[in-house]
């Protein structure tokens, strides 16, 4: 089994191994994933006592109520500082369990067993955890790395195609910002081939792990993981978080960022087309209609990353590198948005 070691935890690749814990364990999942995969986890895990709770499925349940449900279960079952929580699910479950584990009795360990492509390549690695509230997404949370992450492509067999593609968007994001060879590899790759899929996941996680190792608290290069997200978050919000999956909104967001990068001569027309073709290859959306560019522009300032009213844009600098721009003139941004009217 391949493994990537970070200073405080390891990321394991391959078939989920037999695991055990000397203490109580609380598995947190949702009703859908429980039906598909809880038995597999239970058959691979032994502990003094194992409890499971199923939250409701959906981003709309990534909130304080669900955190309370997790904490209630933890207290009801008398978990203590020697106990362990396990997140079995996508990014929603992973982010919530990381947060709940971080605040229960001032913090107990937890494992990430990501079951979506997005959570395998992105959200389960890096220690960002949290929930949404009415002011926005992921505004409440902690940096709280797991004890370990187990990435097994077996779980992806039941993932709907759209969810799979949404995960590919985050992989393309990493290739464009950090690794030209990986980008070229993706252009040729057939992800229906399990070995290729495994290699791609491993390469994407390696990039993410390297980035968070260098910059855990997002003071520098970790910001590059937000390529496509400054635009994407607005697209998600304008679609009431139901029209587009996160990865789909990020795909359109990357096209918008690339339109800006093209105007700044950071990428060529050919590179612009290559990125678009790669997104289309994986059935990701690349078209979008902006109804009101002034309104879209003012939405930039709702992002928690727009510190001091400066909007930070991550732009590709050719393929395989990036630049951060936080002082672009409003006229240029409106001109970019106008290309989508
Ligand atoms: N912490 C981070 O660094 C980070 C990074 C990126 C995204 N995120 C967060 O991750 C979340 C998105 O994660 P996601 O895309 O995994 O969404 P998700 O957790 O909502 O999962 C998507 C859907 O797939 C279902 N599902 C999960 N595993 C399945 C499987 N194996 N088979 C069939 N269905 C399955 C889920 O029940 C859900 O309906 C967002 O809340 C986002 O904010 C966090
Ligand atoms: Zn993302």
Structural overview:
There is one protein chain. By secondary structure, the chain is α/β, with parallel strands linked by helices. The chain is built from twelve helices and eleven strands. Strands 1-2-9-6-5-3-4 form a seven-stranded mixed β-sheet, sandwiched between helices. It has a two-stranded antiparallel ribbon with strand order 7-8. The chain has a two-stranded antiparallel ribbon with strand order 10-11. The longest helix is centred in the middle third of the chain and has 21 residues, at 194-214. The radius of gyration is 20 Å and the shape is globular. It starts with a strand and ends with a helix. The chain binds nicotinamide-adenine-dinucleotide and zinc ion. The site of zinc ion (ZN) has 4 residues, from α9.
**What string, H for helix and E for strand, traces the elements in order?**
EEEHEHEHEHEEEHHHHHHHEEH
Helix content: 40-55%
- Helix/sheet category: alpha/beta
Number of strands: 11
Query: Cα distance, first to last residue?
Result: 49 Å
Task: Indicate the proportion of strand residues.
Answer: 15-25%
What's the CATH architecture of the largest domain? 3-Layer(aba) Sandwich
Give the tally of structural domains: 2
Annotated CATH topology of the largest domain:
Rossmann fold
- Continuous helix count: 12
Radius of gyration based on Cα positions: 20 Å
Query: Which CATH top level class of the largest domain fits?
Result: Alpha Beta
Unreliable sequence segments: none
Major sheet: arrangement of strands: 1-2-9-6-5-3-4
Instruction: Name the ligand types.
Output: nicotinamide-adenine-dinucleotide, zinc ion
Shape: globular
Can you give the mean pLDDT?
Answer: 95
**What does the largest sheet look like?**
7 strands, mixed
């Amino acid at each position: 089994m391949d493994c990537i070691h970070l200073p405080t935890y390891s990321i394991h690749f391959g078939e989920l191994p037999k695991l055990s814990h000397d203490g109580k364990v609380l598995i947190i999942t949702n009703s859908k994933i429980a039906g598909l995969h809880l038995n597999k986890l239970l058959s691979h895990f032994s502990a003094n006592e194992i409890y499971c709770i199923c939250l409701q499925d959906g981003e709309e349940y990534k909130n304080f109520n669900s955190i309370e449900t997790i904490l209630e279960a933890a207290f009801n079952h008398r978990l203590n500082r020697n106990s362990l929580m396990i997140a079995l699910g996508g990014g929603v479950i992973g982010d919530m369990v990381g947060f709940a584990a971080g605040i229960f009795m001032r913090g107990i360990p937890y494992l990430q067993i990501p079951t979506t492509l997005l959570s395998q390549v992105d959200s389960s690695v890096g220690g960002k955890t949290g929930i949404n509230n009415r002011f926005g997404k992921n505004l409440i949370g902690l940096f709280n790395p797991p004890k370990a992450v187990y990435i097994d492509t077996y779980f992806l067999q039941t993932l709907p195609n759209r969810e799979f593609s949404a995960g590919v968007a985050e992989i393309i994001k990493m290739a464009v910002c950090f690794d030209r060879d990986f980008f070229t590899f993706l252009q040729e790759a057939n992800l229906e081939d399990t070995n290729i899929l495994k290699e791609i996941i491993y390469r994407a996680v390696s990039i993410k792990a390297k980035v968070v190792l260098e910059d855990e608290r997002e003071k520098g290069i970790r910001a590059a993981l937000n390529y496509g997200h400054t635009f994407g978050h607005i697209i998600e919000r304008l679609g009431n978080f139901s029209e587009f999956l996160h990865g789909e909104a990020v795909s359109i967001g990357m096209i918008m960022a690339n339109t800006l990068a093209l105007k700044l001569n950071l990428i060529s027309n050919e590179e612009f087309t290559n990125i678009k073709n790669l997104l289309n290859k994986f059935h990701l959306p690349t078209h979008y209609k902006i109804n009101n560019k002034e309104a879209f522009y003012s939405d930039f300032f709702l992002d928690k990353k727009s510190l001091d009213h400066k909007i930070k844009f991550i732009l590709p600098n050719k393929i395989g590198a990036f630049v951060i721009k936080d002082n672009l003139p409003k006229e240029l941004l409106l001109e970019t948005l106008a290309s989508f009217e």
